[in-house]
Amino acid sequence: MRPESDVPMHERMLIVEGRASLAVLAQVGAGLPEEKPSNCEVLFISFAYADIPIGRTFSIVFPTRAPQSALRIKCEILAVTQQFAKPFDEIPHGWKTICLMKFDDGIPDIVATLPTVNGWYENRDTVSLCDEDTWRLNVA
């Protein structure tokens, strides 16, 4: 277990690799809620920097390689699973997961235009989610 408080502030970024394909949704659907509001997206998440609970919110999204292009958002983790469709109550530290994410003001273009993927490692042009303080440390 690794709580967020044990992670240096500049490392507290959730890396999004892509949007889940229809085939993936069919495979892991049992691990996610049946109802998905229109402002939600199922995303492939890279290795988690800490144990991140469901309900955790993020306020910034940006292309991982271009933090200066950040957008302010409100994004919340609604559900977490992985390739075996087992529901989790958090994103476990060090795991790659598939998460249902809610974007309060609609899915931003930076996320909506991510490629639809069937697995991790298919897309290297990732986006990052974080808080304002973490973002400030990464653009300085």
Query: What is the CATH class designation?
Result: Mainly Beta
Radius of gyration: 14 Å
Give the helix tally. Answer: 3
**Uncertain stretches:** none
Largest sheet: 6 strands, antiparallel, barrel
Tally the beta strands: 9
Q: Structural class of the secondary elements?
A: mainly beta
Number of domains: 1
Alpha carbon gap, first and last residue: 30 Å
Strand-residue fraction?
25-35%
Judging from the principal axes of the Cα atoms, what is the shape?
globular
Strand order of the largest sheet: 1-2-7-5-4-9
Task: Give helix and strand order, one letter per element, not per position.
Answer: EHEEEEEEHEEH
The residue fraction in helices comes out at 10-25%
- CATH architecture descriptor name: Beta Barrel
CATH topology: Elongation Factor Tu (Ef-tu), domain 3
Mean pLDDT: 96
Q: Mind explaining what this structure looks like?
A:
The structure is a single chain. It contains three helices and nine strands, in the order βαββββββαββα. It has helices spanning 22-28, 109-112, 132-139, and strands at 14-20, 40-45, 52-53, 57-63, 71-81, 90-91, 97-103, 116-117, 127-130. It has one domain (4-135): Beta Barrel (Elongation Factor Tu (Ef-tu), domain 3). The protein is globular and about 40 Å long. It has 140 residues and is mainly beta. The strands form two sheets. Strands 1-2-7-5-4-9 form a six-stranded antiparallel barrel. A two-stranded antiparallel ribbon has the order 3-6.
